[in-house]
Design a protein that fits this description.
Distance between the termini: 54 Å
Oligomer: single chain
Order of helices and strands: HEHEHEHEEHEEHEHHEEHHHHHHEE
Number of helices: 14
CATH topology of the largest domain: Spore Coat Polysaccharide Biosynthesis Protein SpsA, Chain A
Structural class: alpha/beta
Number of strands: 12
CATH class of the largest domain: Alpha Beta
Low-confidence stretches: 368-384
Strand content: 5-15%
Helix content: 40-55%
Radius of gyration: 21 Å
Strand order of the largest sheet: 3-2-1-4-8-6-9
CATH superfamily of the largest domain: Spore Coat Polysaccharide Biosynthesis Protein SpsA, Chain A
Number of domains: 2
Length: 384
């Protein structure tokens, strides 16, 4: 057995290190005298379709006294009307102040209007499973800190399978699911679901502390870490889900490329090297396997074919915990992996060369470096 092959086995094993365990929410009883009054805060911009699904999923889960607040962030569709029809408190977002970005400003306004003891920030494209609100609340009160959840990714069309490696890297780069998870602190928060008390929000400075950051979820988490507040990251399987980029390949490309490179440079160097090495191993294994087939070397086909199959089952094991990805996506993993590499390079170009990204009709200008990632200049009325 060659040294090269042994080295690639080691690279494959890295995958079990950075996605070792993904905890899930449950209804396990905790010592809470009574269920707190909950304020669910939903920033929404042009989300009439997805918002209706979220609000419907909340029906029957909220108690008397709870409130659902939708911040209509200058939508150009029926987002506000849909929210009103489903009984939500609708806040029409005020004009974006200088130095703020849209989502942070919307969340800040929602939190300012909230009256509940417990604040739950939900992205408008999320959906809660049955009895999930109680599961989220129960899970939150097991710890003394902030709960954040990455939703389970529900795939409906074949092109969405191309998101596979982006999902894997997002979870891995958070640093919360490694074999060393009791030692390594999470990178930040998952933006789609954040749970904390009103007191925690106020004491942290809220979204005003990250008002000009594109990666407000990571920066918000960093603020809590500075104050010694614990962050607890969970997977959303059987609790909360979303369907990312349902409007076609173009939306998928725009969505993943807009900030992915910036998130990568925020990842701790040791973890980034490990993820990069694992991806390099996946690429190299494919190359050696294909080369063996081309030259018809039976021994090489066997040994590299075995390692290729090992990658296939490892990738499927990873994907099954974070989304309903098909087995063929893992079996043909070089395709979504190639897509990931190309789009990651494109993201680097957008962020660090062109220095602007577009999302939901807004152009966001960025200035990038490792320690001072973004500085917004104009994010309100520009159109891409």
């Amino acid at each position: 057995m060659s040294i090269t092959f042994i080295a690639y086995i080691v690279l494959w094993l890295f995958g079990f290190i950075f996605l070792f365990h993904i905890p899930l929410c449950s209804n396990r009883k905790v010592k809470v005298i009574s269920r707190p009054v909950v304020s669910i805060i939903i920033p929404a911009r042009n989300e009439e379709i997805t918002l209706a699904k979220l609000l419907n999923s909340l029906k029957g889960q909220i108690d008397a006294g709870d409130e659902v607040i939708v911040i209509d962030d200058h939508s150009e569709d029926k987002t506000g009307k849909i929210a009103e029809q489903n009984g939500a408190v609708v806040i029409r977002s005020k004009a974006l102040p200088r130095g703020w970005l849209g989502k942070s400003w919307a969340c800040y306004q929602g939190a300012s209007a909230a009256t509940g003891e417990l604040l739950i920030f939900l992205d408008a494209d999320t959906v809660l499973e049955n009895n999930s609100l109680n599961k989220i609340i129960s899970t939150y009160y097991r710890f003394d800190g902030i709960l954040t959840i990455q939703p389970y990714h529900k795939i409906s069309k074949p092109y969405e399978e191309l998101s596979a490696f982006f999902n894997l890297v997002v979870m891995a780069a958070m640093g919360a699911f490694t074999i060393f998870r009791r030692i390594i602190k999470p990178l930040g928060l998952f933006g789609p679901v954040i749970v904390l008390t009103r007191q925690q929000y106020i004491e942290s400075g809220g979204h005003a502390k990250v008002k000009g950051k594109i990666l407000e979820d990571l920066e918000f988490g960093a603020e809590f870490k500075k104050r010694g507040v614990g962050i607890y990251c969970y997977g959303g399987k059987n609790t909360v889900s979303f369907r990312m980029y349902p409007d076609g390949v173009r939306q998928l490309v725009t969505g993943w490329s807009k900030v992915f490179a910036m998130g990568a440079v925020k990842t701790p160097i040791p973890l980034l090297i490990m993820i990069f090495a694992w991806i390099t191993g996946a690429i190299g294994t494919t190359r050696y396997f294909a080369q063996a087939i081309i030259i018809a070397d039976t021994n090489q086909i066997i040994i590299w074919g075995i390692l290729y199959i090992c990658y296939v089952f490892q990738i499927y094991w990873m994907l099954a915990r974070i989304g309903n990805f098909k087995f063929y996506t893992a079996l043909l993993y070089p395709i979504p992996l190639l897509f990931f590499v190309i789009l990651f390079i494109y993201s680097l170009v957008l962020v660090f060369i062109r220095k602007r990204v577009q999302w939901k009709g807004r152009t966001i200008y960025v200035k990038g470096s490792r320690h001072n990632i973004v500085t917004p200049y104009n994010t309100n009325n520009d159109r891409g």
